Amino acid sequence: MARERPGRILLKVSGELLSGFSDGVYDDRMITSFCRDIKKITEEGVQVSLLVGGGNILRGSEMERLGLGRVPSDQAGMMATIVNSIILQNWLTRFNIMSQTFSSIPVGFLVDEYVPQRALELIEKGGIPVLAGGTGNTYFTTDTAAILRSIELNVDVMVKGTKVRGLYDGDPMRDPSANFIPHIDYQSYLDNRYGVMDMTAVMMAMQYRMPIIVFNIFELGNLCKVVMGEEIGTYIS
Fold first, then answer.
1. Inter-residue contact 89 to 61 (CB < 8 Å)
2. Per the annotation, where are the binding residues?
3. Cα(122)–Cα(206) distance, integer angstroms
4. Fewer CB within a 10 Å sphere, N or C end of the chain?
5. HEC per residue, 104-138
6. Which residues are involved in binding ATP (predicted)?
7. Checking phi first, is residue 3 left (phi over 0); if not, alpha (psi -120 to 50) or beta?
8. Topology annotation, domain 8-236
9. 9 in helix, strand or coil?
10. Positions in the chain whose pLDDT score sits under 50
């Protein structure tokens, strides 16, 4: 059974996607494959916004090891998303994809400041805004930033690409009998405190009725399948 094909999406990916299966910070083969998929999607007429995390550069466990508190850790993480966004946006231009990086925190002449109307104008022209800096505030995750931007940019669905198939009623790595959940409503997600999406993000999505799809973006072809309406991953609504 197919889902309704969206006309406009926000795709949120972790920084780990950019590092792919390599030992380094960036995997050119993975980024190239990702950009090809983005080009296919846009050629099908789907409008795309991108929001990338910074986990390939800075990890929470590393920040803890360094003894940093939450505020400086979040500040460093926001800067990491800007670095990733600049690199990803540059890669998109290699595929003749019109794109522009917008940051929620001011970084001088390096990146344009995020203003919803400017991002919307780019989308309407067929371009892709690459959204950096999270929400611009500490204590908020990039999941929450993705929902916030999805609401501001009037997308049909927020799509989160991860390393997992979607949502399970247990840990499939530890419990072979754990069942995959193809669809769940917001309140059930919150009541069960599942971990694939930040609670604050899901609460905001519920308030503004922003549907979410969580899927494994590392599996070849999945991104295009999700955007074309195939039932890949978990649908939260």
1. no
2. 12-15, 54-55, 59, 74, 135-142, 162, 168, 171
3. 27
4. N
5. CCCCCCCCEECCHHHHHHHHHCCCEEEEECCCCCC
6. 12-15, 55, 59, 162, 168, 171
7. beta
8. Carbamate kinase (3.40.1160)
9. strand
10. none
SS3 annotation, 177-234? CCCEECEECHHHHHHHCCCCCCHHHHHHHHHHCCCEEEEECCCCCHHHHHHCCCCCCE
How confident is the model at residue 195, as a pLDDT? 87
Annotated binding residues for ATP, written as ranges, equal: 12-15, 55, 59, 162, 168, 171
Q: Which residues are annotated as a binding site for UMP?
A: 54, 74, 135-142
- Report pLDDT digits (tens) over 165-183: 999 998 777 888 889 999 9
CB environment 41-72: b (16+ within 10 A), e (fewer) = bbeeebbbbbbbbbbbbbbeeebeeeebeeee
- Are 111 and 103 spatial neighbours (Cβ–Cβ below 8 Å)? yes
How far apart (Å, rounded) are the C-alpha atoms in residues 69 and 75?
10
Q: Are 159 and 215 in contact (CB under 8 A)?
A: yes
